[in-house]
Amino acid sequence: MLATALRIEAADGCGATVSDIDLARVSDADVATLRQALFDHGALFFRGQSITPEQHIALAEKIAPIDVNRFFPAAPGYPVIAKVEKTAEQTTNIGGGWHTDHSYDIAPAMGSVLVARDLPPEGGDTLFADMYAAYDTLDAETKAQIAGLRAVHGSDHVFGEKGVYAQTDQPELAKGGVETPETVHPVVIRHPGSGKAVLYVNPSFTLRFEGQTREESLPLLMKLYAHAMNPAHVHTLVWEPGMVAIWDNRATWHFAKNDYHGHYRLMHRITLAGCELEAA
Ligand SMILES: O=C(O)CCC(=O)C(=O)O
Ligand SMILES: [Fe+2]
Q1: What is the DSSP letter of 273?
Q2: Looking at the domain assignment, is residue 12 inside a domain?
Q3: Summary mean pLDDT of the chain
Q4: How far is CA 179 from CA 39, 153, 183, in A?
Q5: Residue 228 zone, left/alpha/beta (φ > 0; ψ -120 to 50; rest)
Q6: pLDDT-based confidence at 4, cuts 50/70/90?
Q7: Which of 170, 194, 216, 226 has the fewest CB atoms in 10 Å of its CB?
Q8: Coil, strand or helix: which one is 247?
């Protein structure tokens, strides 16, 4: 099949908008273009889509093998689709802090394909931060300080029996008993798809630098986090019904805003499998 003439335009702050494409029917050539654009831009946003759960699965499988998230409840009838849901009664949302998914895994998920199924009348935007830019714009001294460092990541403090979600009204996310070992990754990774250096620590799952306590690690971690949150490198994605976003977990962070209390929001997420990460 021939590639369609899809258009890719850099979005403000982070990511790119893709138009002139129907995600219900993508050719192999389109997928190759999209995969490279994803690695280069970190996130891709598609307006005006209307894909079924079956088409969502088919699209994800063309990009990468599916990695079923062990903490999220599945969409009824679709074990590989995770429900990212907040009811009108709940006060806590999923992903309501800066993070990148699965950094606690030995081979962290490459990315996600998220579909907007049911949106609140307003609010519920998702922010994306560009971790290539976060690394590139660090001063030379900080770059030298983090070169060769590795960091420990974990999930028990978030998804464990005594973790964050267990104490909220999203308790089904806390799968007590699924003990997850800590994982170590380089602080600056070489992105496996683009070859570029990326800052790979995040406020939700990074615990400390290897060989240091959390207390010893915090001053530098906080400095890196504050730098990465620079609004110049952040895009605010305002969702529309049916809209699709695909992000790369190695090149971006994301943050789901929780500003629509009293309204329902449902997203369908398919997580894409990734690989072990190497130092830049
Ligand atoms: O609901 C969203 O916009 C994103 C939530 C999130 O963090 C995720 O699906 O990984
Ligand atoms: Fe997330």
Answers
A1: P
A2: yes
A3: 94
A4: 31, 14, 13
A5: alpha
A6: low
A7: 226
A8: strand
Average pLDDT for residues 186-210, to the nearest whole number? 97
pTM recorded for the entire structure? 0.96
In a domain, 213, yes or no: yes
CA 222 to chain CA centroid, nearest Å = 20
> Per-residue confidence at 160, pLDDT binned at 50, 70, 90?
confident
Residue 70 is predicted with a pLDDT of: 77
pLDDT digit string, tens, across residues 119-135: 999 999 999 999 999 99
Cα 244 to the chain's mean position, in Å? Answer: 13
Report which ligand 1 atom has the smallest distance to the Cα of 99.
7
Annotation marks residue 269 as catalytic: yes
* Structural domain containing residue 193: 7-272
Q: What one-letter code names the amino acid at 207? A: L
To test ligand 1's pocket by mutation, which of 269, 270, 272 has the most ligand atoms within 8 angstroms of CB? Answer: 269
Strands 206-209 and 74-75 turn out to be unpaired
Which of 35, 56, 99, 268 does the annotation list as catalytic? Answer: 99
Q: For residue 149, which amino acid is it?
A: L
In a domain, 1, yes or no: no
CATH number of the structural domain spanning residue 169? 3.60.130.10
Angle between helices 53-63 and 28-41 (to 10 degrees): 70
What is the C-alpha separation between 155 and 204, in angstroms, rounded? Answer: 8
Domain count along the chain: 1
Where are the alpha helices (H) located in the chain, listed in sequence order?
A: 28-41, 53-63, 131-136, 140-146, 156-159, 214-228
Ligand nearest to the CA of 116: 1
Q: Which atom of ligand 1 is nearest to the CA of 237?
A: 3
